[in-house]
Amino acid sequence: MAIEFTKYHGLGNDFILIDNRASTEPKLTPDQAIAWCDRHFGIGADGVIFALPGQDGTDYTMRIFNSDGSEPEMCGNGIRCMARFLADLETAETGKFQEKYRIQTLAGIITPKFESNGQITVDMGEPRLLASEIPTTLTGEKVIDQPLEVAGKSWNVTCVSMGNPHCITFVDDVAAIELEKIGPLFEHHPVFPQRTNTEFIEVVRSDYLKMRVWERGAGITLACGTGACASLVAGVLNEKCDRRATIELPGGCLDIEWAADGRIYMTGDAEKVFSGSRS
Ligand SMILES: N[C@@H](CCC[C@H](N)C(=O)O)C(=O)O
């Protein structure tokens, strides 16, 4: 049976969105998600996102499969895409536009809100810093600027969870990082029992960072929203940046703020690419 989908992207981090509002069971299996995400034999995407019915008073539930079929807890660019997808569906069905959604995720309730200029600001909740919450077996209650041996070299890493795990390293030149070679070694390093997303950050100014990312379950992507949030937190913890900064990724820029209330706010775009159906 053919299943309808719409593809969206947030700064080139691209997702296949599926209207799953009629059932709590995702319409695709992880193996189907792998096939659909394939850039040569499938539709091509970094992941598949299912818009499911809400739970415990939320408007909707988001579930996501990475392009390798694994299921992450959260996705920052993905949740902006899901908000745009829901707004497009609801506006077509009812003519009404909902400005804000409360969405249940495996990382808790996340709230995207449309700005008057069309951008979407997401209340991403509070970062988690305890080593046990990342999770990582690196020593210390929190992992801030700690050495980690990867590919025969010692890297100073800071670990932050935005519901999903991130390992951040500050470097002089992000362009010089051999991401394809070292990304998988970080992702599968034994100190990360649930694998990790890995971000390399170059501080251009205290309010402007450049980032490249190797994503758990997806490899090199053009942007990672949770990664940008985690990197700003790491920058503040290491006294390298302000609490609000622009993060430049290969696919574009995100505005990230670690507000006085302890929560992280991420602002950026989400855009529809095309719709179709596939069996
Ligand atoms: N691209 C996403 C993160 C998607 C999940 C990640 N690959 C993981 O496994 O944690 C983002 O924009 O946050």
TrEMBL record:
<keyword id="KW-0028">Amino-acid biosynthesis</keyword>
<dbReference type="GO" id="GO:0005829">
    <property type="term" value="C:cytosol"/>
</dbReference>
<feature type="binding site">
    <location>
        <begin position="76"/>
        <end position="77"/>
    </location>
    <ligand>
        <name>substrate</name>
    </ligand>
</feature>
<dbReference type="InterPro" id="IPR001653">
    <property type="entry name" value="DAP_epimerase_DapF"/>
</dbReference>
<protein>
    <recommendedName>
        <fullName>Diaminopimelate epimerase</fullName>
        <ecNumber>5.1.1.7</ecNumber>
    </recommendedName>
</protein>
<feature type="site" description="Could be important to modulate the pK values of the two catalytic cysteine residues">
    <location>
        <position position="215"/>
    </location>
</feature>
<feature type="active site" description="Proton acceptor">
    <location>
        <position position="224"/>
    </location>
</feature>
<keyword id="KW-0413">Isomerase</keyword>
<dbReference type="Pfam" id="PF01678">
    <property type="entry name" value="DAP_epimerase"/>
</dbReference>
<feature type="binding site">
    <location>
        <position position="13"/>
    </location>
    <ligand>
        <name>substrate</name>
    </ligand>
</feature>
<dbReference type="GO" id="GO:0008837">
    <property type="term" value="F:diaminopimelate epimerase activity"/>
</dbReference>
<dbReference type="InterPro" id="IPR018510">
    <property type="entry name" value="DAP_epimerase_AS"/>
</dbReference>
<feature type="binding site">
    <location>
        <position position="164"/>
    </location>
    <ligand>
        <name>substrate</name>
    </ligand>
</feature>
<keyword id="KW-0963">Cytoplasm</keyword>
<comment type="similarity">
    <text>Belongs to the diaminopimelate epimerase family.</text>
</comment>
<comment type="subunit">
    <text>Homodimer.</text>
</comment>
<feature type="binding site">
    <location>
        <begin position="215"/>
        <end position="216"/>
    </location>
    <ligand>
        <name>substrate</name>
    </ligand>
</feature>
<feature type="active site">
    <location>
        <position position="75"/>
    </location>
</feature>
<feature type="binding site">
    <location>
        <begin position="225"/>
        <end position="226"/>
    </location>
    <ligand>
        <name>substrate</name>
    </ligand>
</feature>
<comment type="function">
    <text>Catalyzes the stereoinversion of LL-2,6-diaminopimelate (L,L-DAP) to meso-diaminopimelate (meso-DAP), a precursor of L-lysine and an essential component of the bacterial peptidoglycan.</text>
</comment>
<comment type="pathway">
    <text>Amino-acid biosynthesis; L-lysine biosynthesis via DAP pathway; DL-2,6-diaminopimelate from LL-2,6-diaminopimelate: step 1/1.</text>
</comment>
<feature type="site" description="Could be important to modulate the pK values of the two catalytic cysteine residues">
    <location>
        <position position="166"/>
    </location>
</feature>
<feature type="binding site">
    <location>
        <position position="66"/>
    </location>
    <ligand>
        <name>substrate</name>
    </ligand>
</feature>
<keyword id="KW-0457">Lysine biosynthesis</keyword>
<feature type="active site" description="Proton donor">
    <location>
        <position position="75"/>
    </location>
</feature>
<feature type="binding site">
    <location>
        <position position="197"/>
    </location>
    <ligand>
        <name>substrate</name>
    </ligand>
</feature>
<dbReference type="GO" id="GO:0009089">
    <property type="term" value="P:lysine biosynthetic process via diaminopimelate"/>
</dbReference>
